[in-house]
Amino acid sequence: MAKEKGSTAVVEESLWIKIQDNLPAIVVIAITIFIAIAIGVWGGWPQLLNSILTGGMWALLSVGLALVFGVMNIPHFAHGESFMVGAYVAYFVFTPLNNYLQQNPSRFLAAVAPLIAILAAGLAGLILGVILERALFYPLRLRSKPGEWVMNAFLLTVGISFVLINTVKLTPFLGNDFYGLGGGYWKVETLNVYPKAEAEDALEGLDQETYQPVLEYLTTQEGSITLGQVQDKFGVSRADLEKLAERRIIGFGNDDPLKRWLGIQGLTTERAASFLISILCIVALWFFLRRTRTGRAIRAVSQDEVGAKMMGINLNFIFPLTFGLATAMASIAGGSLLFMFQAHPNVGLTPLYTAWFVVMMAGLGNVIGAVVGGFIVSILQTATQQFTYGALINVIPTIIMIIVLLVVPSGIFGSEVKGIQE
Amino acid sequence: MLELKKIDAGYGFLQVLWEVSLKVEEGEFVALVGPNGAGKSTTLRTVAGLIKPKAGEVIFDGDVINDLPAHIISRGGISYVSEDLNLFRDMSVRENLILGAYAVPDKETQLEILEFIFSLFPRLEQRQNQLAGTMSGGERKMCAIARGMMSNPKLMLVDEPSLGLQPSLVNDVFSALLRLRDQGVTILLVEQNVNATLEFTDRAYILEQGRIVMEGPSKEVKQDKHVQNAYLGI
């Protein structure tokens, strides 16, 4: 009897201690959930949904930052440029594919092309990251005295940022222009019916047999109809329908497939896809870090570099890999958010600030914290937009971050950096 | 198996080791003892490749290794258990041990070695899911030594394992090392606890102010007047 009582007390005590240890995290998460519900109730659930989708992106961006800081002790201020590179690569991979699709429509390719573009962005990021690490950070590491590394690395990233941004600005065909998606990654062509369709002489000069049923169908439909629907139903080609467009009977338009299907305001295919991609990347990274030999090695390096060397881990393999992965994730974010952030030289600044925001609040170097933090910050930003003036979107979250850091200097979820004194 | 030939080594402008020469033959349990600050840890770090000597050679199994990077030396069969232990404190005991076998190519062999290590260190098996940073001092030392064994090393360099431990635990540590020696591992042990060390080892070197001042079978060294005076309080 006494033994049983004792063991229960031990269990209760450790739970209480667990709560105490993680109090900041629990409090913040609880408050965030409360705010999220508030957003849903007062702003509508689509608003909340959007906030969560954006949060996924911030999470993906911040994870890379946390990883680089935790494993390599680099305060990375060129992370936004990784985002920028991803945006540009995705644009220049997608646009030719898109142009090809105009001439040779293919449902499969239309669905897959954006993914190819985003994947290309990720690959570009990986290569860029490895090159930057080997060419710049490796020599710097050899030259830096132990106490100087953090500052040196930080300054190096600032320089990288400066060089990358201005290289793009000075490139003749890129310059300072904005490269956006126009219609979005995924779209369906729709047909809008104009009043002229009702006119008596609408089909004058055209083959009645072909066009009459189409016209009847079009005029009896509510809202816009997709090109595909009409083509499937009546076997007419786009060229045939263009003849109708010439006479201003119909007009071509674009709509988002997911929005048509589900009808939720703001839930477009791009948003859903970017969220799924970021979740996929984060889960993949989690598996990689937790379950694979190399991932374990990366975690070891982030905890004790000397210990890792003693285990036979080659730092000259781990460092470029980590930096490459982080850059790749930022580039994937940049590519998949092209609908939201058009590609231009300074596009990386907002993502950079947001990612640092998340990492500082969640705890430097804390990878899981960065993921949760991404969502928290997104919800804070949305709440600020909704309940206060939109212009304060960065002000209030910053104030909150200052308060959080005053109370919990190591961040909500705790820092995981080695040599933080340096 | 291991030979240091006239090693000069140090940190930046501070030279710590002056023409240090020593040998460890296969299967031996050799001690390197001396006062605080003599350069014992520096010697081990030089062998492990964490420090590059300014002069002299480190020869292991016939190969000159002093210009090789630390992780290559580790994979070459030398395990270094440092004074700071360098455990991965936010990982479990089990994960630490698995990382010890990082260089072992296939997972099955890793698990075999792990089982064997657990049989040598049953207390570690009990606590295998505990975070390494939350264990007591003695348990952490055991974990570090066990982790060092996971790579099936030919030579183990152990740095002051008994430091800060209560006497009963010191006994445990030394018995663990002897068990390893029985498995055929060659050990170079650095210690301040001269008494116990000379008891358990085959041969000993005395390092004072960065120089080897004496060497010989441990029993003889123990009888030496200077050693008794300076280190054994006799």
Query: Whole-Å distance between the termini of chain A?
Result: 54 Å
Largest sheet of chain B, in brief, is: 6 strands, mixed
Largest sheet of chain A: 3 strands, antiparallel
Strand order of the largest sheet of chain B: 6-7-8-3-9-10
Helix content of chain A: over 70%
Q: Total number of helical segments of chain A?
A: 17
Spans of chain A of 5+ residues with little confidence (pLDDT < 50)?
1-11
Nearest-integer average pLDDT of chain A: 84
Domain count of chain A: 2
Uncertain segments of chain B:
none
Report strand % of chain A. Answer: under 5%
Helix and strand content put the structural class of chain B at alpha/beta
Radius of gyration of chain B, Cα only, in angstroms?
A: 17 Å
Q: Which architecture of the largest domain in chain A per CATH?
A: Orthogonal Bundle
Just name the CATH architecture of the largest domain in chain B. 3-Layer(aba) Sandwich
Q: Strand order within the widest sheet of chain A?
A: 2-1-3
CATH class of the largest domain in chain A: Mainly Alpha
Report the end-to-end length of chain B measured between terminal Cα atoms: 34 Å
CATH class of the largest domain in chain B: Alpha Beta
Describe the structure.
The complex is a heterodimer of chains A (422) and B (234). By secondary structure, chain A is mainly α. Chain A is built from 17 helices and 3 strands. In chain A, α2 packs parallel to α16 and α12 packs across α14. The longest helix of chain A has 37 residues, at 107-143. Chain B is an alpha/beta fold and 234 residues long. Chain B has 2 domains: 2-77 and 154-231, Rossmann fold; 89-152, no CATH class. Chain B is 39% helix and 26% strand. In chain B, the strands form 2 sheets. Chain B has a 6-stranded mixed sheet, with helices on both faces. In chain B, strands 2-1-4-5 form a 4-stranded antiparallel sheet, covered by helices on one side. In chain B, β1 (2-11) and β2 form a beta hairpin. In chain B, α3 (93-100) packs parallel to α6 (137-149) and α6 runs parallel beside α7. Chain B is globular, with a radius of gyration of 17 Å. Classes of the chains: A mainly alpha (422), B alpha/beta (234). At the A-B interface, α12 and α13 of A face α2 and α3 of B.
